[in-house]
Design a protein that fits this description.
- By secondary structure, the protein is α/β, with parallel strands linked by helices.
- The longest helix is centred in the C-terminal third of the chain and has 22 residues.
- The two termini are 33 Å apart.
- The protein has 9 helices and 13 strands.
- It has 2 domains: 241 residues, 3-Layer(aba) Sandwich (Aspartate Aminotransferase, domain 2), CATH 3.40.640.10; 102 residues, Aspartate Aminotransferase, domain 1.
- It binds pyridoxal-5'-phosphate.
């Protein structure tokens, strides 16, 4: 059975060498006579692997010593609640940018905890555009400023970062984490569910500036308290060992291909191959997102009718290109092209697009 090109938004494609390594080591981890996922997380083997994973993330992303890398359960969704629980208590207000489906979810949870000030809202433009970061301002007394660097469903991606002064900048980077270089020092907190670009589902990577911990309230249950996770090095309770291991292998793979500078170049290459196929179709395919907001991770496009889209998706499946159906909330097509997607995958999709447009145009 051959591997297909998997364009799913998440869980999503993983590098083949990572899967092969897991296959080779899953039964007997490096001669220990048992699997890594059968071992106590308090033992030396898991502890070393865990620390290597955290160190690799730190190294690849260039995380300064002022920040701590955590790996937590609960996905990025738990962070939607944990962030306000830790930093939006006591009558404070937080700034949020409402850029689409994921930002909305973050806002929804924050509103349950405290006051939310929407500094920018993409609603009128159907969430197809983004704010100009240089024109954004944080409220001077905001508890923090929240943004979503890449809207996985809408296919819009910030190209630059806002300047928010002393207000802590918090970013949901779930779907473009590790796909480009990021000035981590600008951010008070970055979080990313692993299953989009860093590994399998079951873990969320959180990078936070340690001075932020002074703002946490006393009355918070242990698992939701960042201070405890920092103090216990993400080992307060049983960590998602399998996910951590797979993230570590994915980070090793990423380092092997040249780290973030290489990932950034490949992302540009893959995405332009598909956007160019849209452009040369002369309207057979359309991308609703304006040029300057287009995502290099999730390329959304439409065909003229839903019937044609269904036919296109069927044809794609025949060619072993899968996961191209747009999110159920927006319809259309979507190609998620994360780090592990070979450039050949993007080329195969572009070729299908060309040929399908010729025979159905
Ligand atoms: C997928 C996604 C989430 C939710 O992640 P879970 O790990 O499923 O909780 C949040 N934000 C963005 C931008 C996403 O793409």
């Amino acid at each position: 059975m051959g591997r297909i090109f998997n364009f799913s938004a998440g869980p999503s494609i993983l590098p083949v060498p990572v899967l092969e390594k897991i296959r080779d080591e899953i039964v007997d981890f490096q001669g220990k006579g048992m699997s890594l996922i059968e071992m106590s997380h308090r033992g030396k083997v898991v502890d070393e692997m865990h620390n290597q994973c955290l160190a690799l993330i730190k190294e690849l992303l260039g995380v300064p010593d002022t920040h701590k890398v955590l790996i937590l359960g609960g996905g990025a969704t738990l962070q939607f609640g944990m962030i306000p629980m830790n930093f939006l208590w006591g009558g404070k207000t937080a700034d949020y940018t409402n850029t689409g489906a994921w930002a909305k979810k973050a806002i929804e949870d924050a509103k349950k905890i405290g006051k939310v000030n929407i500094v920018w809202d993409g609603k009128d433009a159907n969430y197809l555009t983004l704010p100009n970061p240089t024109r954004l301002k944080a409220s001077p007394d905001a508890a923090y400023f929240h943004m979503t660097s890449n809207e996985t469903i809408g296919g819009v991606q910030w190209q630059d970062w806002p300047e928010v002064g002393d207000v802590p900048l918090i970013c949901d980077m779930s779907s473009d984490f590790m796909s480009r270089r990021v000035p981590v020092e600008k951010f008070a907190l970055i979080y990313a569910g692993a299953q989009k670009n860093a590994g399998p589902a079951g873990a969320c990577i959180v990078i936070l500036r340690e001075d932020l911990l002074k703002k946490c309230p006393e009355s918070i249950i242990n698992y939701l308290d960042y201070r405890l996770h920092v103090k216990e090095n993400s080992m307060y309770n049983t960590p998602p060992v399998f996910a951590v291991w797979a993230i570590k292998l994915t980070m090793e793979w990423l380092k092997g291909i040249g780290g973030l500078p290489a990932a950034e170049k490949l992302a540009a290459e893959r995405s332009s191959i598909i956007y160019e196929a849209i452009a040369r179709s002369q309207g057979f395919y359309t991308c609703p997102v304006p040029q300057d907001c287009r995502s290099k991770m999730n390329v959304v496009f439409r065909l003229k009718t839903e019937e044609l889209e269904a036919k296109f998706l069927e044809e794609a499946k025949k060619r072993k290109l899968d996961g191209l159906k747009g999110h159920r909330s927006v319809g259309g097509c979507r190609a998620s092209i994360y780090n592990a997607m070979p450039v050949d995958g993007a080329r195969a999709l572009a070729q299908l697009m060309d040929e399908f447009a010729k025979t159905n145009g």
